[in-house]
């Protein structure tokens, strides 16, 4: 009987995943990952792992599987949380859940799994994995979950072929209501537990308070930019490469382009497209963050979700940030391909053409996209398959 280590989180998805693995004949070892112990900035005021680990152990007993916990908090702080602080300090917006999967669940946790005599790890993610043989070479495919409302393939878009070869996703073919039904039928303690929210393993946080652990408050001006600014009518070159480079650059604003309408406590606490937390009233439509300047400590905002400063047609990914899950499909210099792309979780897939130029990968959307944000991940799909991803450079 093959042993497999399951990340048993204290949630309903991993609980049902454990049951399915047992039904499939695996010897399941449930392991709870302790990745975060600090309570600074958490809205609950208490550390979520303390309750979750008790629930996970109850589930393991109910299902009759081996249970352990492993403390990965040091590596999580180093690879995920410190990275978050560094990115926000630069004025970029990281996605800690993507990093958590790449660096923790399918790296550090996989190493821990070996101590329990297992070569594979399973999680409760709503996605699927299979493999194809091409020219005598095996390629592992990351596929969207069957439940389109819960598909989590975007969060796994940085996994490698080696990581996918060791990954199992037991609930990937099941819809969420069915997972709930199975849990209730089995009498599992997680059957009616709400899904977790917020930063992976940290939970829901007051982000400015959380970031203030390392990033200091600093009062600055909020500048409102008018919708008719001449910058939005910038000339676009006819040459394809010049056009891509021009359109991928964020709009650049100066103080004289608008007017001061308020103040903030630190430009690094805000992100493009953000609406809440500005604390500025008196407008017919909400204000949205168009850009931040962490060096000058300025925030630029525009009124309404149709403001032209929120939209761009093209984004760029620097060469070192381009990741091909399917290396056999990697573009060579000068090549192009059409895929469906998303730039944030739950965003509907958008048609775009990818161009590989000498200075990076350019993604040119058929329609302008709202709130393209440096530091976030763009992931490209061929049908249900995630082909690759990369951190947006600007």
Query: Which structural class should the secondary elements be placed in?
Result: alpha/beta
Distance between the termini: 49 Å
Strand proportion: 25-35%
Residue runs with pLDDT of under 50 for 5 or more positions? none
**Overall number of strands:** 18
Q: Which architecture name of the largest domain does CATH use?
A: 3-Layer(aba) Sandwich
Q: What is the N-to-C succession of helices and strands?
A: EHEHEHHEEEHEHHEHEEEEEEEEEE
Q: Which geometry do the CA atoms define? A: globular
Please tell me how large the radius of gyration is.
22 Å
Q: What is the CATH C level class of the largest domain, in words?
A: Alpha Beta
For this structure, the quaternary state is single chain
State the domain count: 3
CATH topology of the largest domain: Rossmann fold
Mean of all residue-level pLDDT scores: 92
Largest sheet: 9 strands, antiparallel
CATH homologous superfamily annotation of the largest domain: HUPs
Keywords:
SH3 type barrels; alpha/beta; 18 strands; nine-stranded antiparallel sheet; five-stranded parallel sheet; 394 residues; Elongation Factor Tu (Ef-tu), domain 3
